Amino acid sequence: MNVFVTGGTGLIGSAVVTELLSHGHTVLALARSDTSAQAISAVGSEPLRGSLADLDVLRAGASRADGVIHLAFANDFSSADALAHAVAEESAALASLGDELVGSDRPFVAVAGTPPIPGRISTESDPLSTVGPVGGRGRSVMGVLALASHRVRSTVVRLPRTVHNRGHGGFAGMLTRIARRSRVSGYPGDGSQRWPAVHALDAAILFRLALEQASAGTSWHAVADEGDAVRDIATVIGRRLGVPIAAVPQETFGPLGAVFAIDQPSSSTHTRQALGWQPTKPSLLDDLENIQP
Ligand SMILES: NC(=O)c1ccc[n+]([C@@H]2O[C@H](COP(=O)([O-])OP(=O)(O)OC[C@H]3O[C@@H](n4cnc5c(N)ncnc54)[C@H](OP(=O)(O)O)[C@@H]3O)[C@@H](O)[C@H]2O)c1
Buried (b) or exposed (e) across 86-98, using 16+ Cβ within 10 A? Predict the structure, then answer.
């Protein structure tokens, strides 16, 4: 397939592009800067210049492709306003990509997060979260899934709180950045809340499998580790950085503080059985040993 990818230079997207190219696909990738265009060309894919706000460019990319994988997101958690802007930008982008694919039966793979379900491990059949600071992302993705009834093979890969590679990425990556700055490896609450995780190279395989195999309207979990206690994550980070480990106020983590405080383990049993996905890369706690002081 010729696959149009957004976010193809990111931590996850770059792994997805490599995974696609190594399995016989070609890639057309959105690039919003010269640096990103060069990175895309360097791995053997074709850059398409534009940003998520350029809806005509997104439509043009989708029109040239046999399938679309959407991963771009501003990831600006600096304030509630910045986050709301990023969510709105992505929502408009998803709607434009979807419009272009209607009636084509082509695959459209979007990204979401595994849902937190109070008191138990979440599964692929649980509904997406549509409340809270990133609830708008859930609503956008439900719009993508609804395209299944308009002849789009839409599917969603739901990612755990930390998608990591070489010690970087996701919520654990945010804890590390805050610990470097504040010289304390902090966690909210008592730290017993659990976050699921996956290595980016394993997640990339699932994006390819979903593109190639998933039925319209389906959701998948890219979960390798069902849930590490946040205190255990902070402990590795603190040891690697040589800083103390301590409970800190939820506000330390900005608009995501409330999400950081929730116990949210998740499973991928159905995904593994149905798509034959088997993660093999290092766990989060092992990968965090790559953090350099
Ligand atoms: N990493 C995780 O743990 C995790 C967990 C759950 C969900 N997710 C989601 O997975 C997706 C990918 O995450 P990631 O960790 O790979 O993110 P990342 O490393 O921050 O990469 C973001 C990608 O999006 C692109 N991008 C951002 N804003 C854009 C815009 N306005 N126009 C065009 N491109 C734009 C970036 O392009 P440039 O290279 O040009 O900046 C980059 O390719 C995101 O939707 C993220 O929310 C990630």
Answer: bbebbbebbbbbb
pLDDT category at 103 given cuts 50, 70, 90 is very high
What is the value of pTM for the model shown? 0.97
d(CA 245, ligand 1 centre) in Å: 29
Q: Whose CA is nearest to atom 20 of ligand 1?
A: 10
Q: What angle do CA 287, 288, 292 make, to 5 degrees?
A: 120
**Which residue CA neighbors atom 28 of ligand 1 most closely?**
74
The verdict on the CB of residue 33 being under 6 Å from ligand 1 is yes
Q: Which atom of ligand 1 is nearest to the CA of 163?
A: 3
DSSP 75-118: ---SSHHHHHHHHHHHHHHHHHHHHHHTTS--EEEEEEEPPP-T
Q: Which residues are within 8 A (CB) of 127 and not within 5 positions of it... i.e. 6 or more apart?
A: 115
Closest to 61 (Cα-Cα) out of 3, 1, 2, 4? 4
pLDDT digits (tens, 9 = 90+) for 177-233: 999 999 999 999 999 999 999 999 999 999 999 999 999 999 999 999 999 999 999
Q: What is the mean pLDDT of the segment spanning 79-100?
A: 95
Question: Where do we find the tokens 């709607």?
Answer: 95
